[in-house]
């Protein structure tokens, strides 16, 4: 369940209470008159089923609560309450399939923000991928996959396309269009330095056996990107963050970017082109899969809730 807190002016108190009392999935409704100091007003809290969160938030927004007050949601891991349990049963749908749009948009917006931290993580993962490429080390390449933060902006692009959020698409696009070139530029400088001191050579790129999957593009490359993107979006929708690790080590976005730079600097343009194509295939596949998951997600439970309890 979710814990809802609403800060609302006194003149909207009854309207908000009417909205919450009219929802089957709402329990433990509390009112604190005059508790809010800035902005001044009342504090109203309730425990709500995830299945009815979108409807509740939509009605509260229709009252303009988000502008004259505040709406906050908090995930509740454990709720020992018969009323809350009954409210969850009465709510239409299943908690595992419930997609709270405002929660998803907020999460992807944060992950898609261009920041120094984002660029540093992307740069470090790109450098790590480059090292893994020239040393033919699968372990190092997998480490680069896990470290890469690029899934956040890609998920944000999927959400933006489905919800038609130009602001979110612009934010995610900026993170990708700035982050990848910066990370690849730093990797290029590092490759030039390594070549100057004799640490890397053209033979190192042409004789890889363990990490050649980075630039070997085929139909299955797109299939893997689709599957990983779908799993990643499902993990965001269902708040199963542990599943994201599997997503990160399934796609070769950052390794492809790193290998493309190394190969180009050392003069192997065929491998550089194939790596760049691998990067494009993975980026497109993840976004397409994210859109499909959001569009085709279950909207109604298949088994009556009463029969499940």
Q: What does this entry look like structurally?
A:
With 309 residues, this protein is an alpha+beta fold. The chain folds into 2 domains: 2-98, Alpha-Beta Plaits (2-Layer Sandwich); 104-296. Helices cover 62% and strands 11% of the residues. It contains 15 helices and 4 strands. It has a 4-stranded antiparallel sheet. Helix 8 crosses helix 14. The radius of gyration is 24 Å and the shape is elongated. Mean pLDDT is 85; it is low at 300-309. It comes from Mycolicibacterium arenosum. This is DUF389 domain-containing protein. Keywords: Membrane, Transmembrane, Transmembrane helix. It holds the Pfam family DUF389.
Secondary-structure map:
Layout: E1 2-8, H1 13-21, E2 26-37, E3 40-48, H2 53-62, H3 65-68, E4 70-75, H4 82-90, H5 101-111, H6 116-135, H7 138-147, H8 151-163, H9 166-196, H10 202-206, H11 219-237, H12 243-248, H13 253-266, H14 269-296, H15 305-308
Antiparallel strand pairs: 1-3, 1-4, 2-3
Helix pairs in contact: 5-8, 6-7, 6-9, 6-13, 8-9, 8-14, 9-13, 11-14, 13-14
